[in-house]
Amino acid sequence: MSAGISITPSHIIQYLYCPRFTWFEYVLTLPQYEEKQHKVMRGRELHDRKLEENKGYLRKRIGVKDKQEDIYLTNGLLRGRVDEVLTLQDDTLAPLDYKFARYEGKLYDTYKTQLYCYAWLIEENYGGEVNCGYIVYTRSKNKLLEVPVARKDVEKVKAAADSIQTIIGGKTYPKATKYKKRCLSCTYRNVCTQ
To answer: What is the tens place of the pLDDT at every residue in 43-54?
Structure first.
């Protein structure tokens, strides 16, 4: 890759939240100290455990023909580890992702973006079509949500990946998000010029 980094769904989620995340973290190399956040670490531990505990029963509810678990995929620009790659009854493919979270009636954009990234990876690696993905909320008795995946959703994450490469490779200072409320909780708020 021209910019020298391999992009993950987290990079794209951060970029879509505010393009300046990319600038501060990868051009100025200012760390976010994400590892110090207890909830994030606990979520990762539980996520790994759930991968071992939830074999089989959720897939029956969806009508899955085949599945592959804990699959690492890359396409030369994006990389990611998909909890499950499902083959559905109509021979289309779908990512399934476990979340250490409660379902409170709202599907967050970050979760959808992650599935769109996985859809891009699955289509390029498996050569099949992805029209939906699934999220399992482990803190809501494994509630299962189906999330539609449209072409425009996948194109949006591809465009974000290209923009991330441009920021890092070209050293251009991007505009901040237009949603100023996001700045209040940003880890870079003390160094960001508005």
So the answer is: 666 655 655 565
CA gap 114, 98 in Å, rounded: 11
Phi-psi region of 142 (alpha: psi -120 to 50; beta: other; left: phi over 0): left
Tokens of 41: 């670490």
pTM score of the predicted model: 0.84
DSSP letters spanning 70-82 = EEEEE-SSBEEEE
CB-CB contact of 19 with 186 (8 Å): no
Q: Which two tokens stand for residue 59?
A: 């897939």
Per-residue CA distances from 110 to 4, 130, 143, 164 (Å): 25, 18, 18, 17
Distance CA 125, CA 150 (A): 18
